Write the structure tokens for this entry.
Amino acid sequence: MKPISKYEIQFSGLPLGIHDFEWDLESVFFDERESVEIEGARLKAVVTLTKETRVMILQFIITGELKTICDHCGDELWIDIQTENELHVRFSDETDLSGDEVIYLGTHEYKIDISQYLYEFAFLGLPVKKLHQPGECNPEVERYFELEEGDKKKEKEKDPRWEALEKLKNKV
Ligand SMILES: [Zn+2]
């Protein structure tokens, strides 16, 4: 038997109008989905369902924090998340969940599992560059980078190949 998802909305019995749902998304939610970039979570998701006769609108507001890895120093990093997304649900002969903004449910459907959307929208809340605030990176790694940078400079000064390489780079 397929386990029943906790992240389901049974819309068939709901009257027309606006309905709010709330979920806490913690680390286990992302662990279960084998997320590589997300290592922890303290999120709250508020999903507002607006039910009309032929269409439903799902508005997702996700706020809180996600734990990931700093691109610069590799230490853990909590990032504030605040996202807002909308999904339109229409009814059709066949179920088609492939759309980003509009999905189609077969007319026999009576519930929707929104876990995939919660995951995607939370994930999209992460910035492209995930970095600590200036000065908050791991000091040992910072020092290592500084030393490496210093070595490169020294090499550059004494090694004529660097000069040739620079010239090449400038041409491209
Ligand atoms: Zn860092």
Notes: Residues 70, 72-73, 75, 132, 137-138 surround zinc ion (CB under 6 Å). The chain has two domains: 8-124, 139-171. The longest helix spans residues 139-158. Residues 139-171 form one domain.
